[in-house]
Amino acid sequence: MRVILVALAAILFLSPTSQAQTSTIQEVLQTHGDVIAKGSRKTIGPAIDAIAASGIPQAQSVLQTWQAKDMWRRKSDGLFFAAKEVAKKTYLLTDFDTGEPVGEFDKKDLKQLKPNSGVRALIGVALVQFQLSDPDPVRRLAALTAIQRDPETSHLAPLRASIDGETDPAIKARKQELETLLTISFDTDEAARIAAIDRISSDISLDTRATLNTLLTTTRKVAPGDMPASENVATVLTPGTDALTAPDAYALLTAQKLAPALVPANEQRIALSQNIQGGKVGGVPIASLNTDAARARAYARLVADGKAPAHPTAEQVTASLAAHSFFDAYVEPSKPVTDAAAKALSGIETRVGVNQALDLVLDGVSLASIFFLAAIGLAITFGVMGVINMAHGEFIMMGAYTGYVVQQLVPNYTVSILIALPLAFAVTFAAGVVMERLVIRHLYNRPLETLLATFGISIALQQVAKNIFGTQARPLTAPGWLDSAWVMNDVVSISYIRIAIFVLALIFLGVFLFIMKRTRLGLETRAVTQNPRMAASMGINPDKVNMLTFGLGSGIAGIAGVAIGLFAKVTSELGSDYIVQSFMTVVVGGVGNIWGTLAGAAMIGFLQKGIEWMNPSNTLAAQTFMIIFIIIFIQFRPRGIIALKGRAAGD
């Protein structure tokens, strides 16, 4: 029994929880006090490491205070405190260990520690291990961002240690991804690095590709004799090929002092001119120095006499190149690691290519929806009615300015857009009706006069817009929920505005089909389009139908203007930027056919994006090539992609 009691007493005595803390953060600071006070980046490292590794709860607070330049040292006893100015040149000191104030002191009795940027950076690295497990998720995310921006070997261990205790699933996933990348870059275990590479072999993110590309970075090297076995060779180079020209190869030799340097021709001529004696240079008459061979002999004599630096002959250069091995070597010394990285990167590049194609398709769909939305009104006025309305672009512009005016009156962007869409339709519908009653009705079946009249109206409307709103672009701001983008990965993304325009285009496609196929106006419009006299004999008023149809096309153009104004500059020239594409969309798709308009918008949108992808630095060239292609296309298919059939096709 006595033995048991002694054993229990020994266990309690040796238990860490029963022992008083043998050291304080102040003791750690005092141990490195002089180094801390000096604040030199070259010597401060051990002091910072000692504080971070002390295991004392106050270590994080000390490092943060020091980094913020709020740590002071009392001159009388050399102790360190956190200080806060409470009056002019008077500071309240707070004990690091207890957190209790120790009194107010005059500034002359204290010395402020002002770490420079280099020391603050070292402190920041040390703070990472604390911040990764900080209770505040914002600080944990900030620590991850800091590591991701400037990763170091020292970050790997604290990052790994923080993963198991992470409670936030999103942050934990990000920690695991970052740990994988740091393992690839900094882990000393080759097998662990290869396993990490295998884990991210299907990840196409920029960080993954950057990490793998870093492993595959090469440097050009040269070595005497055969290829050194210690190098991780990426490519063996042969002097005299496109990959490595002979002059470049010899320059590598001379740069590493493996061969004598070549003397430039101008320096050889200078040496010859400086050593003319008795009409000769190196025993060769000046009159004979009219060939390269003669100049080479004279220069060789000067070299032999020690009057000029040696210049290797062509045979010596060839021999030097043959005696050395040239190669590109990976900076990463481990061949299994670089092999795994190359294999993973090859698969990733294939996936990137597929995603780039998908991104191009989405861009094409987005542009096609914009063209379709701009052209759907023209598909009614031109495609159905046969009226060449050059002022169609100005109806788009009027719709955009209507949205701008509404936003000036209704500051809530979501509400203002909901008001602007029907209001823009009403404004441009009314403008279209007025235009049809005053001008268009007198010019039916007279296309040239219609074109000239509407062109003049478009110029007049542009000038009116300039007089009212000025020449400066006006903002039409999208609601906050349309500001960002749908990001599928680091390659594929599309803005919510483009998605909204695509949805709006589909809605108007459905509305148009419903009006033309399921309403009396649509029936009467089709009847008047096909045979006005027969329609009139059936009790249909052709003038009224034409007026409403033209107004409908103009109203849809106004709604398109609101949508386009959300991402384009709202100016008086806004409509002119889309009028050409709108006419091309209708003509290429097939005049008088809404499905043809849709097909034309798709073809033009995808064609323009495809040409821009092949020549991304010149969008004007892309539009030029697109127009040329369309001209050629119309020569072979003048009625468009989807041509009308029957009696309407002959009109």
Task: Jot down its keywords.
five-stranded antiparallel beta sheet; alpha+beta; 26 helices; 651 residues; 4 domains; disordered C terminus; three-stranded antiparallel beta sheet; 9% strand
Description of the structure:
The structure is a single chain. By secondary structure, the chain is an alpha+beta fold. The chain folds into 4 domains: 25-121, no CATH class; 132-215; 218-330, no CATH class; 356-650, ABC transporter involved in vitamin B12 uptake, BtuC (Orthogonal Bundle). The protein has 26 helices and 13 strands. The protein has helices spanning 2-14, 25-31, 33-38, 45-52, 59-67, 117-131, 137-149, 156-163, 169-186, 190-199, 206-215, 246-255, 265-274, 292-304, 314-322, 335-384, 392-409, 413-438, 447-469, 496-518, 520-530, 532-537, 542-565, 576-589, 594-614, 619-636; strands spanning 71-74, 80-87, 90-94, 101-106, 110-112, 218-224, 233-237, 276-277, 280-281, 284-285, 324-330, 485-487, 493-495. The strands form 4 sheets. Strands 4-3-2-1-5 form a 5-stranded antiparallel beta sheet. α9 (169-186) crosses α10 (190-199), α20 (496-518) crosses α21 and α24 (576-589) packs across α25 (594-614). It is extended, with a radius of gyration of 40 Å.
